[in-house]
Description:
By secondary structure, the chain is an all-alpha fold.
Amino acid sequence: MFTRLQQNKHYRRVHSFxxxxxxxxxxxxxxxxxxxxxxxxxxxxVEGETLAFDNAILMMFRDPTNVDxxxxxxxxxxxxxxxxxxxxxxxxxxxxxxxxxxxxMVKLKSAALLLLVSVLGGTLLSTFLKMGYNRPRPDLxxxxxxxxxxxxxxxxxxxxxxxxxxxxxxxxxxPNRRLQIFAIAGAVFLTVIVGLSRLYMGVHYPSDxxxxxxxGAAWAMLCSTIAFKLQSNGTMPTPVDQNPASSSSxxxxx
Length: 254
């Protein structure tokens, strides 16, 4: 029976589509799951059901005898400020500008355009969501002054959008598996430490950061999926494995 099914032309068409578009379908499924996680978390936040969890996590970074005092010595506070600055709009803008300039110089204009559209789109989405939910910041003495609403965390979301998209683009053009893993792992690491720094500073609830990570990762996953599709269509170049003796560089777009 299974043999007859395999010989059916409709089955072969479906099987060919699924196997040929596996990464495309997987990327869409992963992005959809992250969006659903964000919507579920947002619903819990609106109903106030995350407040106990949020406060419990925030208190882990506070002196039990004085909640206005953040734990750790002064040098740790300065280090956390430096880390959280990696998710600021100004520094992320510099990162994006530098990476886009590099991609253009090595003739990978489609990758540069994809990165630019992804980050700008993520920035607009974060701004509109903050205005829509308009959640107040935690009622704690914080390490920095804030000017926008709390949900979702802009630093967490934009660092996820920017770093994960950059990681995805660099992984797509990386010449070997080791560099691909390094690009993705580095992007994830930077995204995580920026989000955690927001909790330490007391400027966001944990649910804000989780929501930012979910939506930012979904956006980056969608852009990575688009990059894969462009690559499979020949619009974005496919990397070629290199060895140390090779004089060739990154693939060039014609």
